[in-house]
Amino acid sequence: xxxxxxxxxxxxxxxxxxxxxxxxxxxxxxxxxxxxxxxxxxxxxxxxxxxxxxxxxxxxxxxxxxxxxxxxxxxxxxxxxxxxxxxxxxxxxxxxxxxxxxxxxxxxxxxxxxxxxxxxxxxxxxxxxxxxxxxxxxxxxxxxxxxxxxxxxxxxxxxxxxxxxxxxxxxxxxxxxxxxxxxxxxxxxxxxxxxxxxxxxxxxxxxxxxxxxxxxxxxxxxxxxxxxxxxxxxxxxxxxxxxxxxxxxxxxxxxxxxxxxxxxxxxxxxxxxxxxxxxx
Length: 280
Prior knowledge:
Layout: H1 3-6, H2 10-35, H3 39-47, H4 49-60, H5 63-81, H6 85-107, H7 114-122, H8 130-149, H9 151-159, H10 161-166, H11 171-193, H12 199-202, H13 204-210, H14 216-239, H15 248-268
């Protein structure tokens, strides 16, 4: 069966739309994650979506809603306990250890279909429904509007928080807004690549773009482009290997990493952002 034939099936159309929505939001928010050095926060928030997902299954039979609530709770905890940059990673580590313990504890009480719980870890793009698409679209619009509204002050606060605060920029409020947006985005991305591989869309596109340009707007545009190519390309490629049961998340991570390696090679060859940076 060829690719065109697969795309006539609703599951493939839904998956492609979902991948596109998630890539757009991931690519938009990833440069701020890189600028604020919050890769560990992404990892921690993604991992801690798992206990929320299990709680959602136990209470309402809905892993995604549980993961979203859990991520928001974690985001609040990170914002409260890690008010200073030096405290953030320590706070995330403490919360991560406790949260995973809670997740394992709750999982022992769940006796339903095991895939419903494990999908939040590894992703299940082919199980996206029309309702999921609507929810993803609402989340994508909301996150885009919020980030668009605070883009420049958030960028200022991310690059030089001390100077931004001295000039009256509400850095703490912006940090809280960003952490909430990040938590929602991570939960959204987890539906496609799973919490264990979420860094492939929430970090790698921006890391790749920063190798090619020093302009914030160009980095954002490239980050979105790389996320789209990885997410959509990874899913389309997975359709060619659908009989092998290899998840789309595997191909998404491979493509994303390939772009990163190519960008590093381009930078070393003198075609990247290093040309715009002063020596030393």
